[in-house]
Amino acid sequence: MQDDVSKEITKKTGVTLDAEFAVGDPAQKVALMAASGEYPDIIAAKGDIGKLVDAGAVLDLTELIDKHAPNIKKVLGPYLNRAKYTTEDQSIYAIPTWSAVDEVKAVAGGGFELQHRVVKEAGYPTIRTVQDYEKVIKDYLAKHPTDENGNKNIGLSLNADDWHMYISVTNPATFVTGGSDDGEYFIDQQTHEAIYHFRRPEEKEYFRWLNHMNAEGLLDKESFVQKYDQYKAKVASGRVLGLIDQDWDFNDGQHALKTAGKFDQTYGHYPVTMGEQYKETSFWPTGFMGGYGISISSKAKDPVRIIKFLDYLASDEGQVLNNWGIEGKHYVVENGKRVVPKEVQERINNDNTAFTKESGIGFYWNIMVHYGDGVKDPTGNYYTKNSPELITEGYSDVEKETLAAYKATTWKDLFPKEDEFNVKAYGAAWNIQIPGEDEVSILGNKMKDITWKRIPEAILAKPEDFDKIWDAYQNDLIKAGVEKMEKGYTKYVQDRVKLWSADEGK
Q1: Eight-state DSSP code of residue 81
Q2: Quick check: pTM over 0.85?
Q3: Mean of the per-residue pLDDT values for the chain?
Q4: How many Å is the Cα radius of gyration of the chain?
Q5: Residue 358 burial (CB < 10 Å; 0-12/13-18/19+)?
Q6: Cα–chain center distance at 439
């Protein structure tokens, strides 16, 4: 906590944090913690909160919030109901901090990525389907098989290291076939029935396309063996023409390219699907999701002090501090409007890693209750910097040139808009809390083991063997109890719809 924002938080609250981060599988870390009986004061367990609840490791925060957290109550408002654990156990074990209140997303950070130089050389063609995406990569590689140093350029690289597998390899199969982001499930929007999304025939064709990309020599041969640091280093080298990822996952590499002035080797975001009959779903609205958040351990010596600290972060002052930094240093107020000085914006654009480390801006986003993009504070300024005006200030000239060629101002302009979808009644299924010992959780781990073995196998197989491997994969899922898991998960989705219906219309 030696950055500017952290020092200010300590000055305001007297609190410092000694943070420890899970290395490897976070679920394993939480399971070990639950078994040991030794807990830190504050825990962010994400989807594994059930293990801590079962172990009696976390407090019910309902009373603490009611008595000591006026800012948390104000921000969550009618959505406090969505922090409840289950319909049977309506305790609040985690204050929801990963979802933003009243958010209208302004940033398209996902989709399929292509370097600006690749689309420029192709004449800025429409990038709408996997075939469009593949063609520009293939054409560019044919002309430029190596970089200026003789190193091989790479068509498409995937990040399959541990949990990144979800982000770069398996989740996209849902998006490109018209499904919404519901983790490992596809949810019927009418009945709220859940199926394990890999059982959809549409998704089989997506993985067949990745198999084809591999057979054509367009997929990085190291995609399933490289470590995360190696993946980021490849991005930073400028040799990777295309990615299928979220910007927060590859930004370290992209920031290195910006620092080196290689802006034409940074990436744009495109709403790619398997065919024009599908609509890309990055901006399918969830409403406020509840779910993932911050818990206070049952061993904490001073829960009241902790809740007051978290309440400060949720205050207007705390949110502006986290999003904007220190007034006079990271922003100024001109005619009542918060403005980022030119020299500060240049550091954000071109030296982001060092700037963020020094400033601490954004570090507290996932441990604080907060408003989302598009929400204004009492001064009439946005809480976050992700307003269309400020987003474009962060773009390089090369990025602006690409967007102008597509008659767009921001990357979001290329994607289907929120009003093209109905708000999901359950938020997002990936953040539904499942008790740790529930059979759904146990079966889910079995399916993950099968999937993480079979999907790489199917992608890397000879094309003539793909169907055989896929059929074996589907049979493995049936034998392991996937239908039972789907039935159990369906109940949790339908229960959440019931629980959340209490705050409808508010």
Answers
A1: G
A2: no
A3: 94
A4: 23
A5: middle
A6: 26
